[in-house]
């Protein structure tokens, strides 16, 4: 069927010509409220049982959440039982507020208040829907009738607060579907609830303004929030709260702009679990603040265990490309990206106190419990930088720059034939096959030297295609003597093999007794061609000799 855009219309903008939020910057974290156990739970095909909810609640507390919406206790026995267990078993720390959601209906309010008896701190969150579509389609009521529902619900809650003696109670109201509601009417109905609850600066009320369904660009939501903040009465007696969904995939953007617009508090879920396309992802917003140098006041320094709890309890999974938390988000397959990351990390080692500025990495993976070895992975799209990084990170093989340029394409061709990602161990095997295990035609049997008056003489026993060959040479060092010996060699009707050593590097591969050393040597032959070789031995001199033979065998 052809698409028909004429059936839709743009959402009308808010009249706010002197909007202030575009010129503001965020300087501190908001108050956070997790709604995983209510909003996230109701979005699951199989809702969490009490044990799973208890495990996830404990994980949220460890993250540092001080306000947690624990459910809809009037909705089911499971929800009610969970709330009672939190209170009766004293599972909630004294500084954590248990938030419960309830519609503006007397029977539901009665059950909700009953669920909170004995709690240390509680937030009663009442809501009713206010948008034109909800008023027309769902309720069939006028604005005044919808407002009357909110007023009546607020009175029913206030009348029952005396039953929560010993509990510190906060009250919260949500004009649900606020983002689709006329701002003037949202203000009117919110102020009507305020008239009942009588908030003060000392005992403020939470006014939650949900982007229940994203119907506009995030800048429009920011305008709505700023308009309310500037026009609602007794703003100093309110905590303006945001609750965004992700229908247009801009839930994070809407929240960040809403905070610029004057909001104080944010509701959301871990990794954005929630109805339809999900709720706001609290982890992303918190770490976005962190990457700008703002303490988010939440603890996400080890994301992997949190992901495990989340996936075990909800049955959901964190996608591999999910911001910060995904398996692949600190992974680079592109060769140019890998090279830039490798250079950025190397610079970072020399300037650890400088501000983080590594190409392609918005934050240090280690800050959230990830390791650098996860950063670089290699497939057919990778380049020399990624290959070199993995060999160095996993095996301590520090290829010289020119050797990286030689081995990179060799490895890339091999990986391309496999048609998949390869591990560090597979890359090492490729390197060993190409360089270390090259023992034909030349293979070392023994290498002896003696030094006198600054001149080193060498006596070398080799196999040339399995036939014994001996050479003797001299020079100002063992390798110079070896090169000289090859120039004098008489073998297989050939007099002299001429080449020069143009590059040399070596380092230890491991520490302790019997530690191996690796040498890298580049030779240049008389025809102007260059080849690299590599050798490994517990004696660095023999590792260098093996590297020369490796280069000869490859030339």
Reading side by side through the largest sheet, how are the strands ordered? 1-8-7-6-5-4-3-2
CATH superfamily grouping of the largest domain: Aldolase class I
Number of domains: 3
Oligomer: single chain
Radius of gyration: 34 Å
Distance between the termini: 64 Å
Low-confidence stretches: none
The total beta strand count reads 16
Please bin the fraction of helical residues: 25-40%
- 3D shape: elongated
Average pLDDT metric:
93
CATH architecture of the largest domain, please?
A: Alpha-Beta Barrel
Main sheet specs: 8 strands, parallel
Describe the structure.
It contains 17 helices and 16 strands. With 555 residues, it is of the alpha/beta class. The strands form 4 sheets. The chain has an 8-stranded parallel beta sheet with strand order 1-8-7-6-5-4-3-2. A hairpin with a 2-residue loop joins strand 10 and strand 11.
Outline the fold blueprint:
Layout: E1 31-34, H1 36-42, H2 50-63, E2 67-71, H3 77-88, E3 97-103, H4 106-115, E4 121-129, H5 132-139, H6 143-160, E5 168-176, H7 183-197, E6 205-211, H8 218-231, E7 238-244, H9 251-260, E8 265-268, H10 282-290, H11 303-314, H12 335-350, H13 384-395, H14 401-418, H15 424-436, E9 442-452, E10 455-464, E11 467-475, H16 478-487, E12 490-491, E13 494-495, E14 499-508, E15 517-525, E16 530-537, H17 540-554
Parallel strand pairs: 1-8, 2-3, 3-4, 4-5, 5-6, 6-7, 7-8
Antiparallel strand pairs: 9-10, 10-11, 12-13, 14-15, 15-16
């Amino acid at each position: 069927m052809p698409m028909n855009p004429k059936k839709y219309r743009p959402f009308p903008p808010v009249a706010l010509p002197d909007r202030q939020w575009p010129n503001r910057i965020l300087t501190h974290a908001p108050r956070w409220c997790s709604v995983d156990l209510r909003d996230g739970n109701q979005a699951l095909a199989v809702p969490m049982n009490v044990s799973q909810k208890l495990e996830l609640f404990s994980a949220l507390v460890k993250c540092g959440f001080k306000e947690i919406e624990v459910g809809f206790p009037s909705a089911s026995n499971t929800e009610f039982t969970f709330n009672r267990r939190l209170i009766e078993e004293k599972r909630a720390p004294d500084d954590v507020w248990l938030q419960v959601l309830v519609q503006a209906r007397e029977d539901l309010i009665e059950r909700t208040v009953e669920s909170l008896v004995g709690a240390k701190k509680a937030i009663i969150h009442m809501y009713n829907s206010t948008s034109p579509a909800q008023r027309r389609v769902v309720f069939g009521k006028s604005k005044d009738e919808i407002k009357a529902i909110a007023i009546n619900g607020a009175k029913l809650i206030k009348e029952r607060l005396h039953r929560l003696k010993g509990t510190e109670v906060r009250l919260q109201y949500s004009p649900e579907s606020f983002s689709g509601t006329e701002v003037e009417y949202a203000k009117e109905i919110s102020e009507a609830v305020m008239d009942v609850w009588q908030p003060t600066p000392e005992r403020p009320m939470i006014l939650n303004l949900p982007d229940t369904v994203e119907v506009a660009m995030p800048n429009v939501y920011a305008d709505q929030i700023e308009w309310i903040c500037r026009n609602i009465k007794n703003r100093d007696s309110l905590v303006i709260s945001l609750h965004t969904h992700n229908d247009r995939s801009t839930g994070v953007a809407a929240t960040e702009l809403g905070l610029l617009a004057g909001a104080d508090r944010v509701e959301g879920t871990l990794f954005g679990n929630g109805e339809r396309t999900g709720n706001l992802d609290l982890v992303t917003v918190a770490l976005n603040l962190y990457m700008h140098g703002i303490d988010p006041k939440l603890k996400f320094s080890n994301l992997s265990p949190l992901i495990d709890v989340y996936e075990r309890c909800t049955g959901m999974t964190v996608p591999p490309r999910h911001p910060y938390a995904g398996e692949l988000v600190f992974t680079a397959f592109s060769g140019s990206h890998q090279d830039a990351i490798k250079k950025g990390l190397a610079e970072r080692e020399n300037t650890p106190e400088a501000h983080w500025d590594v190409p392609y990495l918005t934050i240090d993976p280690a800050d959230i419990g990830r390791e650098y070895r996860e950063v670089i992975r290699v497939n057919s799209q990778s380049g020399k930088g990624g290959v070199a990084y993995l060999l160095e990170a996993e095996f301590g093989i520090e290829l010289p720059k020119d050797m990286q340029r030689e081995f990179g394409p060799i490895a890339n061709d091999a990986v391309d034939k496999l048609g998949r990602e390869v591990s560090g161990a597979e890359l090492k095997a490729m390197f060993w096959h190409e360089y270390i295990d090259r023992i034909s035609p030349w293979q070392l049997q023994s290498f002896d030297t003696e030094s006198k008056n600054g001149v080193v003489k060498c006596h070398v026993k080799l196999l040339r295609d399995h036939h014994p060959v001996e050479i003797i040479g001299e020079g100002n060092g063992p390798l110079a003597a070896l090169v000289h010996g090859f120039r004098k060699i008489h073998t297989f009707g050939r007099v002299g093999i001429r080449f020069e050593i143009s590059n040399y590097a070596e380092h230890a591969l491991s520490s302790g007794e019997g530690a191996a050393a690796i040498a890298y040597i580049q030779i240049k032959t008389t025809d102007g061609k260059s080849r690299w070789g590599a050798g490994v031995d517990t004696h660095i001199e023999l590792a260098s000799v093996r590297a020369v033979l490796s280069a000869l065998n490859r030339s």
